[in-house]
What does this fold into?
Amino acid sequence: MDVTTILTIGAVASVLMLIVGIIVSVRSSRSDVEQRLGDIVEQRTDEDIEEIQRIKTTPVTDWINTRVEGSSFGEKISKSLARADVKMKPGEYIALMIIASFALGVLTWFIGNQNIFVGLIGLIIGPFLPRFYVNNQQNKRLIKFDEQLGDMLNLMVNGLRAGYSTMQAMEAVSKELPPPISDEFFRVVQEMQLGIPMERSLDNLLRRIPSDDLDLVITAINVQREVGGNLAEILDTISYTIRERVRIKGEIRVLTAQVMYSGRFLSMLPVFVIAILYLINREYIMEFFSPTAGICGYIALGLAASLIVGGYFAMNKLGDIEV
It folds into this structure.
């Protein structure tokens, strides 16, 4: 069996593992924190919890988790995964990045006529694919959470005026509203039931959902708990402000959508053109890597890539308007 066959089999296996990992992470219903909270609430024995954790872990991801646990890098990954609501551990995420890097590197090496430079490009780009997915999920979840924040405040205000406590009003939010806001407040209620102070539980919520509107709500709740006052009236006033901000943000997203999608389309267009030319006339594209071109071909490709990336971020900056 030659080297090409071995690398091809490895690339196919890596792609399959990557797809399985994404499917498992998307379809998983509960995160590790929720699972542990549920274990304590349901009063399972320590032996049952250890057995569940033993079944859910694998030797590779467990080894990676022990290396990154407690480090700033592992904490950053955990926070990023929590914000995106991706049901993965830091070790699993790092393993996914390694698999994606290897799979894309072998794939580009095989497509690029077994050119080492092309394979290195795929090897470098591969780890950014899971990160791009996580960042995309974070943005979608944050936008959806902000859109639900006004309904959450109305529900809390009505509950407080009906005689509910603040915790009972949050519990009503976790039961009545759809995800993601119901999931997040369910975790807040669970933490409070386990004896964690409300201020700390709300701070944990803000770390998972870095929203300016949510920060305003949490600050109002904490101030009311310190100095007193009518929380229902305070949240009612904040609700109007947040609804107006959400409306303005939605209008800005509509007005800047053309700029954002134009930047994405213009950035992907050269890649599609190169791919089509490679399929139609491979010899023409491979002139960049021919010995006669020397280093000039690599410089031209590097300059083109830098201009594409610079143009993409410039157009995104034009469409990024703070409210």
The chain has a mean pLDDT of 77. Residues 286 and 292 are 11 Å apart (CA to CA).
